[in-house]
Specification:
This protein has about 100 residues and is α+β, with helices and mostly antiparallel strands. It is built from three helices and two strands.
């Protein structure tokens, strides 16, 4: 499956495991080729994607492996709720541990 072609693209991958994480974590973030790879992996595993330019602009500053800052909790919670609802309505496959 091909990832969307997006010149100048920025993508953020978030993860949240309530039993392990105090807050959602930035799993990966990047621009251009890295963003395209993030989107490609999301498409391959049928992980829902949501465009949110303002939130992306804020989250790109969070290093991968770090939690989302508290001031972004509400925005990220709304985003994750949307994505979880989207996932429930279709086939949703998680990538293997450690990524691809």
């Amino acid at each position: 499956m091909n990832a969307p072609k997006a010149p100048g693209a920025v993508a953020i991958a978030l993860g949240y495991h309530p039993e392990r994480d105090d807050a959602p974590v930035v799993l990966a973030a990047g621009q251009d080729e890295i963003a395209r790879k993030i989107l490609e992996i999301a498409a391959e595993y049928k992980i829902p994607v949501r465009r949110s330019p303002r939130l992306t602009e804020l989250l790109i500053r969070v290093p991968p492996g770090h939690p989302v800052p508290p001031e972004l909790y509400q925005a990220v919670a709304l985003l994750l709720a949307y994505l979880y609802r989207s996932a429930e309505s279709g086939d949703f496959n998680l990538p293997p541990p450690g990524g691809k």
